[in-house]
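DM from R.C. (forwarded with permission)

"hey, sorry to bug you on a friday — could you get me a structure for this? deadline for the figure draft is monday and I only need the backbone to look sensible"
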Amino acid sequence: MKRLVFIAVSVLMAAPLSAQKYGATPEDSIECIKNLSIYQEFYKQKAYADAYPAWKEVLHYCPNTSKNTYIRGNVILKQMIARTQDAEAKKQYIAELMQLWDLRIQYYGEPAYCAGQKASDMRTYMPDAIDEAKTLFLTAMEDQKEVRNYAIPFLYLRTVIDAFKASQATKDDILEAYEKGTALLDVYQAAKPEDTKIGEAMAGLDALLEPYATCTELVPLYEKKFADNNANADFLKKATAMLDKRGCTDSDIFFKMTEALHAIEPTPQSAYLMAKMCYAKKDYQVAIDYIKDQVEALEKDNEKVNAYMLLADSYLNTNQYTLGRAACMKVLEIKPEEGRAYLVLGNMYAAGAKACGTESQVSQRAAYWVAVDTYIKAKQVDPSIAETADKLIAAYRAHFPSGDDLFTFGYKEGESYTVDCWFRATTTIRAR
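My reply, with the result:
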């Protein structure tokens, strides 16, 4: 004890400006240093119940001695909660855990981070405190500037869903929570595009929303809201984006909201939605006219990929194969593993095959070799479309020249052949 007193006094004399760190008075400092040593030793041994009393003394006498007081205290209290069977004691430890987050904010700041962590603990240990947890999660999401916990948007949405189940929230609240969460994750993704965990967090949000955002749920909801919001650009953007994401683009309300948005505030995004609407109606040339000059102005790569795919398929349906091929190549520049682009490209080669040869049945069928090569490439880069690719391969292999045709016109299987038409490609001679 004498040595502890000596250490405390030495600290106070050597650094008076830091004395507050070890307690407000010399007596507090003695207690602080004594208990600091005791609880840290027990903590190292994972003897959390033994560490708890001394840790409590440190928190009392010198709450700003170290952030570790709060980091380790979090562990100690959670162990005490888990191990006690006494309901009143458990309740007291939970209250101390909640207070610990407040004290950490008081002495070390980081209010947004601490609010998110406190809310997360609240959902675990105080499941009925839904409203308070919602408020804390919202604080974490609105104020958090540093990326710390990608799970917060998911936990917030789950809390709002729990509130809905308890008749304390509406489906509108669920959609709003989802929009806030995805907006925050978009900010994180822009800051750290290489971080795959952000995509996983986004997928978690989508899965959580799924039962509450089917077309059956969304369409009537937006139909009711449209009359009062048909000139509200912010509402129209969010609503059309949600319907687009959930695959509800063939609904009348999607068409109406898209038209209203494009009339009020034409943007590359609204032009894409207009094109998508026209494509659904099979007005392919109108779809082309809407989007062809707007794709590069879209901000996100996934938006550009989808817009170029729509453009490519529209060109395919209007027999504009050269322009369609160029659109597919744009897709593959952005996303080389996009198998859909290879499928559409193969369909163009197959559709325009007869225009690529005149002197023999072999030359007129050569483009089918290139089409099949392209379908094979599609399933190599994207195994998820292998079944579709295999069906197309089987269909167009039937259009290959016969062995007799190859013999008649002087071709040998396995040799190279260059198609030089509206596209140029080297392929391998094959018989059906």
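R.C.: lifesaver. Confidence is low (pLDDT under 50) at residues 1-19.
me: no worries. The beta strands are 416-420, 424-428.
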